[in-house]
Specification:
This protein is an alpha/beta fold and 558 residues long. A hairpin with a 4-residue loop joins strand 8 and strand 9.
Length: 558
């Protein structure tokens, strides 16, 4: 899948007059690269690309390179780039657009020690009039720091001042929900965010949404266009967005950085990636209610590898939910898609809200075929990348893209209201049911096939106060309660006479994508399908809320 570059969110630093003047000292294995009065020594194996001679060249960091000149707004990038190593962009400082407030650094040593933000260090060399952007992968930070630490201003320097962006100019626009509700719509993704002109031209296309790489240490392309202003302008022009994080990859795969095989560490890595991605989304004006997608590229699975990935995704999902975002995962249907589907009933893991699978079969639909059973991610929760790496031309502009078909809903459902409902769990897709329509106190509650004529699956939701309700069996008039008014994990739920106890009332609140959480007033714990079982007849219990598929409930008015 495509992988764009880092947002230029790194700290921009200024080399002052204290910076040494003279040529960068290259070793026999290095070459000296000079640009507008600034010199660096880089390994001879690095490619040097003059953007003034090839203005539309793709500025990419899946291979080591130095780019001289300002990257074009519309670059000729392959859609399907993967991974990041180390590289530099040397461009004129005058008219540049650093993405964060400048930080002064008086010596090359201070420059080399400057903080990296989202795997990028940005340096304003005012004496030479050059903006240096140093990009690195997870393990190449030391390489670019060494290069920056040996950079020199030459006697030919023609100075310019770094213009710091004002805080107001950097603030995101009004919060956007991405992708929002996109039912049977088409989308494209490209390695780097297209120019505004290209996006305007592509309004003539059948695509209604665009994938954008907002975070992650494995992005390959620059993201010079990807700003809050770019997002707001395109949103105003009718575009929706698919925000993508390209970070940790399968521990059994070929790409770096890899997740840990240790399940606790992998979960922590997923949580960390989610926080970085949520911060990046917020900075772009993409707010809560949006789905953020973790890109886990294709791999050859093993049981240990699958469990590490599922632990990573659980950390990713739990953290995004805590910040009000939906969790999405992108992967090959035959690796990540299959592993997610096979893990859907495993209570150890939290499932993502959306599954975006790559299966280049040319079919513009969300059918997962032999990889993803039809009974999973059924409630507007699928995206299908059905065609990869190809050129399309719309409005006279040609872009190399991947094509996608979307059936997703991102907006939360409305607040709960009184009424008669069928209540379905996401896991398994079965309805909340009174076993055999029992009428005695202690009647068992389970998950079962929908029976349209059964009063034992018709629940009267009656408000007591605010978002707190009784959930009353349509057959007996008895409320759903935690058995024995227990507050213990795994305590079962059943029916009993109404005694106005806290264990007989529930807070019902919308989560996202049409789902609600149901939290016991007395226990503070969630109504839950035991063991996250997808089987008919699964028991219903209470368990600490984590937002997984066994705790997401869908209400259908009768």
């Amino acid at each position: 899948m495509l992988r764009p570059v880092t947002l230029l969110t790194g700290a921009a630093l200024i080399l002052t007059a204290a910076t040494a003047v003279g040529p960068a000292q290259a070793t026999p294995d290095e070459r000296t690269v000079s640009y507008h009065g600034y010199q660096v020594a880089v390994p001879k194996s690095w490619q040097v690309v003059d953007l003034t001679k090839d203005p539309s060249a793709c500025v990419r960091f899946d291979r080591p390179a130095v780019y001289l000149g300002r990257p074009a707004e519309q670059q000729n990038c392959p859609a399907h780039l993967a991974g990041r190593t180390a590289g530099l962009i040397l461009e004129p400082l005058s008219g540049s657009a650093p993405r964060a407030a400048a930080v002064a650094a008086s010596t090359s040593t201070a420059v080399a020690a400057a903080p990296s933000v989202d795997h990028q260090i940005q340096v304003g060399v005012e004496e030479a009039g050059v903006l240096v952007t140093a990009v690195h992968g997870a393990s190449e930070e030391g390489v670019v720091r060494q290069i920056l630490g040996r950079g020199r201003v030459t006697s030919k320097a023609a100075g310019a001042q770094l213009v710091r962006p004002k805080a107001a100019a950097m603030a995101p626009a009004a919060s956007i929900v991405a992708p929002g509700t996109m039912i049977n719509q088409q989308a494209f993704d490209q390695c780097t965010a297209p120019s505004l002109g290209a996006m305007n031209a592509w309004k003539a296309s059948p695509f209604k949404a665009v994938g954008i790489y907002i975070s992650g240490s494995s992005r390959s392309c620059t993201q010079a266009n990807l700003t809050a202003s770019w997002v707001a302008s395109n949103a105003a022009n009718g575009w929706s967005f698919i925000p993508i994080d390209v970070g940790y990859q399968a521990p059994c795969g070929s790409r770096n950085p890899k997740m840990s095989f240790d399940l606790g560490t992998a979960r922590s890595q997923g949580a960390s990636s989610a926080n970085v991605s949520a911060d990046a989304a917020s900075a772009l004006g993409i707010g809560p209610g949006s789905a953020l997608y973790s890109d886990v590229e294709a791999y050859t699975s093993t049981v240990a590898c699958r469990d590490a990935i599922m632990s990573y995704i659980s950390g990713w999902t739990e953290t995004l939910h805590s910040r009000g975002y939906l969790s999405g995962v992108y992967s090959s249907a035959g690796s990540g898609g299959r592993d997610l589907a096979n893990s859907a009933g495993d209570s150890r893991w939290l499932m993502p809200d959306h599954l975006w699978f790559a299966w280049w079969n040319g079919a513009a639909d969300t059918n997962g075929g032999q990889y993803i059973p039809a009974g999973l991610w059924t409630n507007h929760q699928r995206l299908h990348q059905y065609k990869g790496d190809h050129n399309e031309t719309w409005g006279g502009v040609t872009i190399n893209i991947d094509s996608n078909f979307l059936d997703v809903a991102g907006n939360p459902p409305p607040p709960m209201t009184d009424g008669v409902y069928r209540i379905k769990a996401e896991v398994g897709g079965f309805d909340l049911d009174v076993q055999d329509c029992q009428s005695q106190n202690g009647a068992n509650i389970r998950m079962w096939d929908r029976i349209l004529t059964s009063p034992c699956q018709q629940w009267h939701v009656v408000r007591t106060t605010g978002n707190t309700f009784k959930i009353v069996d349509g057959n007996t008039g008895k409320p759903l309660q935690v058995s024995g008014c227990s507050t213990a994990d795994t305590a079962p739920v059943d029916l009993s006479d109404d005694v106005s106890a806290d264990c007989q009332t529930w807070t019902i609140e919308p989560i996202t994508a049409g789902a609600y959480k149901i939290i016991g007033t007395g226990s503070g714990k969630s109504l839950d399908v035991a063991g996250c079982s997808a089987d008919r007849g699964a028991d219903v219990i209470i368990w600490p809320f984590h937002g997984g598929s066994c705790q997401r409930w869908y209400f259908t008015a009768v």
